[in-house]
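Give me the fold.
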Amino acid sequence: MILVLTGPTGSGKSEMALALAQAVGGEIVNADAFQVYEGLTIATSAPSKAMQAEVPHHLYAFVPLTEGYDIHRYQKDCRAAIDEILSRGKTPILVGGSGLYLRSALYDYDLTLDVSSADMAPYEGLSEEGLHEELRKRDPAEAAKIPYQNRRRVYRALQICLAAKTSKTALLAAQKHEPIAPTRFFALSKERSELYPLLDARVEGMFASGLLEETLPLIRKYGMGAPAFRAIGVKELFPYVEGVLSLAEAKRLIKEDTRHYAKRQETFFRHQFPLEYVSGLAELLEKVTP
């Protein structure tokens, strides 16, 4: 049995996963797109070294900041970790809020499509709205899921449509909709009136814990183009580094982006996974332990 613990960012998944792993003899597997990177413990709210010493943790802080990492690599790495954990009679517990990473690892996602065959030259110069409109023409359902401002995801979805000569929605519909192994999906349930103050407090805590001391030397060393620096909590600091925004304004932007991201996560999870909602650790343990 595979267990998944997901939910919006800042909802307390890492701490709850640790207690769950201790209760069921489990090992934790990262399902957060940015916690795979080295050097961003504070920015990504990755489990501390002390937490990782309590039970085995897999796929954390192993990718260089300047190296790209995507669902193709994650599918391979995560499935290998799951198989290895199961082979020792332990329970894999996937923890994180990156929905596409979870789906790629646990569902029949065919990631062999060669998207490089798509001719993207006619679309490179389009505005964000124009690029989104091109996707909408080819795949209205997928376009409805992605805000036009998220150019990277819109571009990728359009690239898939052109390479496959069909919509991404049609490709997914042709795949199996059952997990690759028996899996239970749990999600932390919090009202936004409760979650948003927690998110704001989390951002304040990141700064108090040394966010600037962690990130600014890395930005100076690697520039602003490193793949890891797309993480919320890093990219919003770029205008501050450039002198365009004050620190207070950058902090406000991080809080705003974090709340927007949490809202998108909740929508994705609700439509993509057979979730069992839990309010806290006691309810979760009641569901998974005899």
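The longest helix spans residues 247-272.
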